[in-house]
Amino acid sequence: AAAGERSLIAAESCSSLNSAASGAELERAARRQFQQDETPGFVYVVSVFSALGGFLFGYDTGVVSGALLLLKRELNLDALWQELLVSSTVGAAALSALAGGVLNGLCGRRPCILLASGLFTAGSGVLAAARDKETLLAGRVVVGLGIGVASMTVPVYIAEVAPPHLRGRLVTINTLFITGGQFFASVVDGIFSYLAKDGWRYMLGLSAVPAVIQFLGFLFLPESPRWLIQKGQTQRARRILTQMRGNQAIDEEYDSIKNNIEEEEKEVGAAGPVICRMLTYPPTRRALIVGCGLQMFQQLSGINTVMYYSATILQMSGVEDDRLAIWLAALTAFINFIFTLVGVWLVERMGRRKLTLGSLTGTAVALIILASGFLLSAQVSPRITLNPTDPSHQNSTCTKYSYCNGCMLDPDCGLCYKLNKSSVVESSCIPVDKHSTMKAAWGRCSNESIFKKEDLFWAYNFCPTPYSWTALLGLILYLVFFAPGMGPMPWTVNSEIYPLWARSTGNACSSGVNWVFNVLVSLTFLHTAEYLTYYGAFFLYAGFAALGLVFIYGCLPETKGKKLEEIESLFENRLCTCGMSDSDEGRYIEYIRVKGSNYHLSDNDASDVE
User: Fold this and answer.
1) Is 544 within 8 Å of 367 (Cβ atoms)?
2) Are 499 and 568 in contact (CB under 8 A)?
3) Where is this protein found (predicted)?
4) Same structural domain for residues 424 and 529?
5) Are residues 512 and 541 in the same domain?
6) How distant, in Å, are the alpha carbons of 178, 241, 479, 480, 532 from that of 333?
7) What is the pLDDT of residue 606?
C-alpha cells in the first residue's frame, strides 16, 4: 500500500511538473507574441536616429588613430601634440557632459541632441579646413563638446522612450553605433591613407554627413514623454506615448510615471541643487556610486588607449608600414563592432550583471596576453651594434642604449638598421630629426629617399620583432571580451538606475567621470609606456580590470526586465550588498487572458491579450 501511495505521489508530482513546464512554455510564447505585436516601428526609427549621436561619437574618437600617422608627418607633430589632439577632445567632452545634465533638465533631450549635431557639423568643418595644428586643436575641442552632450543624452532618451522588454537592447544599439562609427572611421583612414597630402582632411571632415542627417531627422522627432510629464506637459506626453506604444494601452504606464514623479518630489523635496539631493538620499547616492564606478573602470581597463592608439600600438609591436598598421587597426575596429552586436543579442538574455562580469574577466586576461606580447618583444630586443659619432658633438642620450627596447622608449631616439634575412644587423640608436619622426637627425638614415635605396630601415617608436602577432592577438581578444559587456553596459545601466528627477544629473556625472578618466588614460598612455614600458602599462590596466571585477560583483544589481520606476528599490540596501539583490526581487504578476485560459506574464507586459 505504501509503495502504491508513493507511486501515486510520484505520478502526481510528474504531472504537476509537466503542467508547470507547459504553463511556462505558454507564458513565454504569449510574452513573445505580445511583445512582437505591440512594438511599433516608430520606436526603432527614433532609436536609430538617436544612435547616430553614438555613431558620431565613435567616428570622431576613432578617426584620429589613422589621421595621426599622416598628421605627425605633414605637420611635424611631436608626442605632446599627438596626445593633445586626442585628449583635447575627451577633455571638452568631459566638460560638456557635465553641462549637458543641466541642459537636459532645462531644455529637454531633443534640443540637446540637436545641439550635439550642430557641434559635430561645425567641428568637422573646422578640422577639414585647418591649416595648422592650433586650428586642428580648436576643431577637436568643438567636436569634443558635441561628443560630451551626445554621450549623456542619447542613452537617456532611448531608455525613456523604449518599452521595458526592449530597453536594454535599444540602449545597447547606441553602443553598437559607437563601435560602428569607430569601424567606419578606420576604413576611411585606410582608404585616405593613400593620399599622402591632405588625406587627413577627408578623414576628419566626413563626420559632417551623419551629423546633418541626425539634425534634420530630429527636427521631426518627439521629446521624451517622461521629461514632458515632469514639466507638466501631460497631453503632449500622452500623445507621444501613444505613438511609441502602438495599440498598447498607455494609461497604466502614464499613471505609473506621473505617480512616481509626484512621490519622488514629496519624498526628496524640491529644494537645493539636484546633485545635493542625490547625495543626501541613500538610494540615489548608491546608484551614483555604481554608475560612476562602472564608467571609471571602463576607462581604466584601457579601451580608449586601444582604440585611439591602435595603429600606434601595432607599430610599437613591430608592424612597420603605416598603411598596414591602419588596416590592421580597421580589423580591430571591425571585431569591436561585431562583438558589440553580440552584446545586443545577449543583454536581454544574460542580463546586465552576468554580461558585465564575464566581459571584464575576459578583458583582464586579454590585457595580460597583450602585455606578455610586449614583454616577449622586449626580451628578444635587437642589440645595438654600431655607435657612430655625433657630428654636432652634442651630448645625446641615444648613445647610452645597448638594446633597441631602451632606444624605442626614448621619444628623442630611433633605430637605424639593416636586415639579414630576418635578423637585425648594423643597428645604431640615433637622435630623431626635430622636424620629422620619419628620419634620423644625422647619419645613414637622415635622408629618407636615400636610405630606403640602400636597404636601410628606420624604426621610431617600435623595434623589429618576431612577436608582432602576439600584440595583434592580444588586441583581438581584448575587443572580443570587452565589446559585448564592458563597452555598452556602463551606458545601459546608467540610463536605467536613476529616478526621473535625478536621471539627467546622474548621467551627466557618470558621463563626466567617464570622460575625465578617458583624458587621464589617453593623455598619459605614451608617457606611461615610456616610464613603465609598454608591457608595464598593459599589466597596470589588467590590475585595474581586476579591481573593477570586485567592485561590480559586490555593487551591481540586475535591472533586466524592470520598469524604470521599479529600479530605485534595488538600491535600498547597503552599497556592498546591492550586487547580491535577487534579480527577481520586486517582480509582480499580472494575469492575462490567452484564448480563454489564464497564464501569467511578469514584468507588467500587459493586462489583456487575445
Assistant:
1) no
2) yes
3) Cell membrane
4) no
5) yes
6) 10, 37, 8, 11, 26
7) 39
Contacts 24+ apart (CB under 8 A), 603-606: 603/164, 603/165, 603/561, 603/562, 603/563, 604/164, 604/252, 604/563, 605/31, 605/34, 605/35, 605/165, 606/34, 606/38, 606/248, 606/249
Under 8 Å between Cβ of 254 and 235: no
Write down the pLDDT at residue 526: 72
Q: Are residues 421 and 281 in the same domain?
A: no
Residues 78, 26 within the same domain: no
Report the 10 Å Cβ neighbour count for 3: 7
State the average pLDDT for the chain: 80
Q: Of 350, 353, 371, whose CA–CA distance to 540 is shortest?
A: 371
> Containing H/E element for 148?
helix 133-161
Which segments in the chain show pLDDT lower than 50? 5-17, 19-21, 30-37, 582-610
Last residue of a domain, one of 410, 439, 459: 459
**pTM assigned to the model:** 0.71
Contact 479, 339 (CB under 8 A): yes
Question: How far from chain centre, in Å, is Cα 497?
Answer: 18
Q: Which three cell numbers stand for residue 506?
A: 546622474
Contact call for residues 304 and 516 (beta carbons, < 8 A): no
Number of CB atoms found within 10 A of residue 178's CB? 30
What letter represents residue 201's amino acid?
A: R
- As beta bridge partners, residue 457 has 417
Neighbouring-strand partners of residue 430: 414
CA distance 4 to 583: 41
CATH number at residue 43: 1.20.1250.20
Task: Tell me the C-alpha distance between 233 and 236, whole Å.
Answer: 6
13: left (phi over 0), alpha (psi -120 to 50) or beta: alpha
Print the domain residue range for 307. Answer: 39-376+468-555
Residues 121, 208 contacting (CB under 8 angstroms): yes
- pLDDT for position 466: 79
Mark whether 253 and 296 lie in a shared domain: yes
CB-based contact 180:188 (threshold 8 Å): no
What is the rounded distance in angstroms from the CA atom of residue 373 to the CA atom of residue 535? 8
- DSSP character string of 176-193: HHHHHHHHHHHHHHHHHT
Count CB atoms within 10 A of the CB of residue 558: 19
Tens-place pLDDT, residues 50-80? 999 989 988 988 888 778 878 877 787 777 7
